[in-house]
Amino acid sequence: MKDWIEGFQASIDYIEQNLSNELDIVKAARKAALSPFYYQRIFGAMCGMTVGEYIRARRMTLAAQELTCSGNKVIDIALKYGYDSPDSFAKAFQRFHGITPSQAKGSGAYLRSFAPLHIKITLGGGNMLDYKIVEKAPFTIMGTKKRFDAETSYSEIPEFWSEWMSDMKGLKGMFGVCTDMDGKSFDYWIADLYLPWEDIPEGCCTYQIPGGYWALFKCKGALPESMQKVNTQIWSEWLPALKGFTLAGNYSLEFYLPPAKAPADTVSYICIPLKKSER
Questions:
Q1: Is the CATH number 1.10.10.60 carried by domain 2-105?
Q2: How many CA atoms does the CB half-sphere of 202 hold within 13 Å?
């Protein structure tokens, strides 16, 4: 657990040291010994915000400090923290602080401050988390997919499901699958198990999921709350204590059983690919 926490803190330190430079999410993920795909998911679950939101909050904090404590021009500060123009900087600044950069230069202005994150080992857990590790052969899914930005996916994916439910395209919607994460975006599939003897519905395609070990986490209760609760436990409690296995692949899967009569009885699964540790 200590090595895992130290690696994640190293990634946050890398972000902090490069707030006035161009940040590379791949390098940040590498500090934590994670793929960009898992780094973004774990960061969001542990920190309650996306990596991009954290970076913007820290940059706006430092920009405000420079405006009030230095004679630097607004344009210079804007460029330093990654904004192409004073206008785009001013809009972002006002959203965060509630006042314009010019107002911030005046005396007595109220500003917001967002402190750097520090990951600490604390007594936690103590919660029941049902899971099992299984080995599965490769399998193929068939469904419809859409590319999502990691920053906005939490709000946009439910909309994708709503769109699909209005025109189900011959799918049952057994799976929700994240694939091909490049650090900034990923494909999200609404899919079923592909059966070669059945026709592929119009607008759908297939994707092969590699074989290997999977950790299956049972979620019981109304969606999406039950799945969100388990997802947070996976990344903040289960993963730091995991021994003998490490995360594998740049994909993950949600499995949905047929709807129950009562929302509280709904059962679904979060499925995380694993590989055996080398040490």
A1: yes
A2: 1
> Which of 176, 174, 212, 215 is closest to 193 using CA atoms?
174
Instruction: Give the Cα separation of 277 and 228 in Å (integer).
Output: 27
What one-character-per-residue DSSP string does 96-149 give? HHSS-HHHHHSTT------PPP-----S-------EEEEEE--EEEEEEEEEEE
Residues 6+ apart with CB under 8 A from 9: 118, 119
Cβ 162 vs Cβ 195: under 8 Å: no
Task: Please give the CATH number for the structural domain made up of 131-276.
Answer: 3.20.80.10
pTM reported for the whole predicted model:
0.80
pLDDT in tens, 34-74: 888 888 888 888 788 889 899 999 999 999 999 888 778 88
Instruction: Kindly list the distances between the CA atom of residue 98 and the CA atoms of 56, 89, 91, 102, 111, in Å, as whole numbers in the listed order.
Output: 15, 13, 10, 12, 8
